[in-house]
């Protein structure tokens, strides 16, 4: 199934019964495949690019482990990558997987050329998922992220920036960022938090919240990553991030309560003023001042009309 060219040899993979040629460079995974089986392409020396059909939902253990030439992986429908699936793919630079939810242990371990990742659908990042990715500088997650496990980014010395949602108990292990000495910038996922801050009643509150959010980027450069031979402050950056998350959450809860209190007071004051002055003076008092016959006439006219109709009906019967 390989199509030979001068430099490119294409191969369409249709399942575990296929024998993958050692000289295949560009692989497409057929729409009939739901899961790429364990070890399917492991140690293939020539594969440069893998493009999966949207029907492919999973990549099993070590499926592409130790593929030294693999540079680009496109997996638009994949939701789970099992342990060591791409471990030791030292040339890998581009990973596109917008629906990926679960990254198992060491899935991208020692992908030394991987410079950035963007995983908007990721929920779980397990132990060592990106450990020893020495070129990784930017890791971006979306608002679905629930948990990052121990040593997930261990020994990523180039890691400078990570984007995460504001969730408590999402980062628990002390060794997540061990040896990540250059980690100095945290971005929060855009969304509900920023909308809440923008809606706060007073500019002073908004400024205070934004300053609290930005504070982590002043703290991180001064905190040790942990796990270096000279460092007794194990997991210093993790502890700083955890403390910051709880501080921001606590402050936004406080200001939301204050915001509601101010709104309640304003509503109460508005009602008090409008009822006591506008409504009472302009509507209620003039209404009470009207003479009683204003209402009696209407009642009398209704009674008189009914009496007349009854009289007419009696005359017709006679």
TrEMBL record:
Highest taxon of the lineage: Eukaryota
Pfam families: LRR_5
InterPro entries, per the entry: LRR_5, LRR_dom_sf, Surface_bspA-like
Protein name: Uncharacterized protein
Organism per entry: Skeletonema marinoi
Lineage: Eukaryota, Sar, Stramenopiles, Ochrophyta, Bacillariophyta
């Amino acid at each position: 199934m390989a199509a030979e060219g001068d430099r490119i040899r294409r191969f369409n993979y249709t399942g575990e019964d296929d024998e993958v040629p050692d000289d295949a460079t560009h692989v497409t995974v057929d729409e009939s495949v739901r899961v790429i089986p364990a070890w399917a392409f492991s140690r293939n020396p020539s594969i440069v690019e893998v493009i999966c059909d949207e029907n492919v939902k999973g990549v099993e253990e070590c499926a592409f482990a130790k593929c030294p030439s693999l540079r680009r992986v496109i997996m638009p429908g994949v939701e789970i990558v099992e342990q060591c699936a791409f471990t030791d793919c030292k040339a890998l630079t581009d990973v596109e997987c917008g629906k990926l939810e679960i990254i198992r242990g060491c899935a991208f371990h020692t992908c030394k050329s991987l410079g950035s990742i963007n995983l908007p659908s990721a929920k779980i990042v397990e132990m060592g998922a990106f450990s020893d990715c020495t070129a990784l500088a930017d890791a971006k997650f979306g608002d679905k992220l629930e948990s990052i496990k121990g040593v997930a980014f261990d020994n990523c010395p180039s890691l400078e920036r990570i984007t995460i949602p504001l969730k408590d108990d999402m980062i628990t292990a002390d060794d997540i960022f061990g040896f990540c000495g250059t980690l100095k910038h945290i971005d929060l996922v855009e969304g509900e938090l920023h909308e809440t801050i923008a809606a706060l009643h007073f500019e002073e509150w908004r400024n205070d919240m934004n300053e609290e959010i930005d504070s982590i980027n002043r703290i991180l450069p001064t905190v040790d990553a942990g796990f270096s031979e000279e460092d007794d402050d194990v997991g210093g950056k993790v502890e700083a991030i955890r403390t910051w998350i709880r501080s921001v959450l606590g402050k936004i809860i406080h200001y939301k309560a204050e915001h509601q209190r101010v709104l309640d007071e304003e509503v109460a004051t508005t009602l008090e003023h409008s009822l006591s002055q506008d409504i009472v003076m302009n509507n209620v008092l003039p209404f009470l001042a009207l003479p009683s016959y204003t209402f009696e006439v209407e009642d009398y006219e209704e009674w008189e009309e009914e009496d007349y109709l009854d009289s007419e009906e009696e005359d017709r019967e006679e």
